[in-house]
Design goal:
- With about 150 residues, the protein is α+β, with helices and mostly antiparallel strands.
- The chain has three domains: about 10-50; about 55-90, no CATH class; about 95-145, no CATH class.
- The protein has four helices and five strands, in the order H-H-E-E-E-H-E-E-H.
- The chain has helices spanning about 10-20, 30-50, 95-110, 120-130; strands at about 55, 60-65, 85-90, 115, 120.
- The strands form two sheets. A three-stranded antiparallel sheet has the order 1-2-3. A two-stranded antiparallel ribbon has the order 4-5.
- Strand 1 and strand 2 (about 60-65) form a beta hairpin.
- Helix 1 (about 10-20) crosses helix 2.
- The longest helix has 20 residues, at about 30-50.
- The chain is flat.
- The two termini are about 15 Å apart.
- About 5% of the residues are buried.
């Protein structure tokens, strides 16, 4: 019995191939890959210095510095104290959020339960069934119940 397949990541080489395959493209895949790698390097440098990185028509990656709370339970504290750490917050822009939600609802109406490469998991499907968003007999492509 197979489970729901999780999506693969979009790597620089995959993205370069997608761009190279576009009809309006005039550049070699290798050149596109090099440009994308340079862009990623600049994004990485910006994030390491604490800058926000805004990706047009997608959203913003926001670096944060955090401090941990000291707890009175020794098990919760690290030896030598709880050092500060960094994290990312990712914020979608409004247009992206609306477009993703619209596509999700269109997919549900067509019997596709999730986004193209990101299906709902079993628990989410149970919730959607209970709330009436999907039919009780909905199944995923590999035959498992959704």
């Amino acid at each position: 019995m197979g489970g729901v397949r999780r999506p693969t990541s979009l790597t620089v080489s995959k993205m370069a191939k997608h761009i190279s395959d576009r009809e309006d493209n005039i550049y070699d895949t290798r050149v596109i890959g090099n440009i994308l790698n340079m862009y990623m390097d600049e994004c990485r440098k910006a994030l390491l210095s604490g800058e926000r990185v805004q990706i047009s028509r997608v959203g913003t990656i926001i670096p944060e510095v955090k401090t941990r709370i000291s707890y009175s339970l020794p098990v919760c504290n690290k030896e030598g104290g709880n050092p500060p750490y960094t994290a990312f917050r990712i914020s979608r822009n409004n247009h992206m959020r609306e477009e993703m939600n619209r596509l999700l609802m269109q997919n549900i109406k067509k019997g596709i339960y999730g986004l193209k490469k990101l299906p709902f998991n079993k628990q989410q499907l149970d919730i959607l069934r209970d709330s009436g968003y999907i039919p009780e007999d909905a199944e995923i492509e590999n035959g498992d119940k959704k």
